[in-house]
Amino acid sequence: MKIIGTGSALPALRVTNDDLAKFLDTSDEWITTRTGIQARHLLSTEDLYDIAVDASVKAIKASGLRPDQIDFLLVSNVANLHVTPGLSAIVQKRIGLTCAGLDINVACAGFVNALMLADGMMKAGHAKNILILCAEEPTKYCDWKERDCSVLFGDGAGAVVVTEGTAFKDVKLTMISDRDVLYYERGMETTPFEKEYIKGQPLVMKGKELFRTAVSESAKDINALLKRNGLQHGDIDWFMLHQANKRIIDGIRHIVGGPDEKYPTVIQKYGNTSSASIPIMLDEMIADGKVKAGQKIVMSAFGAGFVSAACLWEWEF
Amino acid sequence: MATIQDKTRALISSKLKVSENEITPDKNFFNDLGADSLDFVELSMLLEREFNVKFTEAETANVKTVGDLLELIEKHIK
Q1: Nearest-5° angle of CA B20, CA B26, CA B28?
Q2: Residue pLDDT, tens place only, A160-194
Q3: CATH number of B4-77
Q4: Which of A99, A132, A182, B6 has minimal CB crowding within 10 Å?
Q5: ipTM entry
Q6: Which of B6, B26, B32, B36 is the catalytic position?
Q7: Is the fold of A2-166 the same as that of A169-314?
């Protein structure tokens, strides 16, 4: 498998830390030192479906394929307005696709999990050209009266078109069941038989526990991937990590090794865009000419579950 | 050979960017040494790797001073 086209889309509204400090008990200094985030984009006049379609159309255009040559649509999304139908079904027609699709929810690790699924579908002969779309609006899970979560997130969409090739070398997935460290509950309807009304709960994050688990498990994934492929950290050109917190990225780097320059970031501009963070960053790096054929690239992500996932590429175009 | 205290002070100094002379047992990480909550998580992870030990959340939650931390490390190493 290889990636032959990328696209990304962000909402028009850019919100800085100073903007947030006008109504939250926070400051630019507080947010920047603890997270590395300086700004984020939030859905306001457009909706998630608009940016999902925009990123997808760009990725298909970049791939050189026509929409009718896409065999399958694989969507990573944690939550959106519709519990059903799935996001893949909602955006399929607007993207110009007629193929089947499905949604996955593996939290912020959705992109790497989708890559694993796409690779398997190709090897099984179910599809040749797959559009992977990661579209997320995590700002809508947060309690905006509190600074703990709301300052961390941004909305965005990233998409890639994958086809047959040999660039995708290996993948490692991890799951450690621990709901309480990070969760969001949507309200559901009440039946006459329930004792308590389940009204939902905005995103809850145990920051210190999450930090510790994210750093240690992602570093374990990456080191295991390197070891079983006979590689050292110095052999890797880019470590593209999920953009949740610059200090988590630094923590992983301290364990895995390598200079800061090999760990690119977009978190300063976009905040945590959940599963969209890696494809958005990849799209920008390809547009900037930073990704070159033959480069060895590690992608690693982690999120609610607790889940983590890492994969290894030797890049082909 | 560097003692547990020496290694711990060196790691605290490097992580929190403070002089080793300032790192005395009575110093509070948050009030005196300028640590935030993530600094302390990062520091505890560095110490776990350095001394090959594993602290529980409850243990690290009770650490306020350099002396508390040294006591915790020594308890795990013994």
Answers
A1: 80
A2: 999 999 999 999 999 999 999 999 999 888 888 88
A3: 1.10.1200.10
A4: B6
A5: 0.79
A6: B36
A7: yes
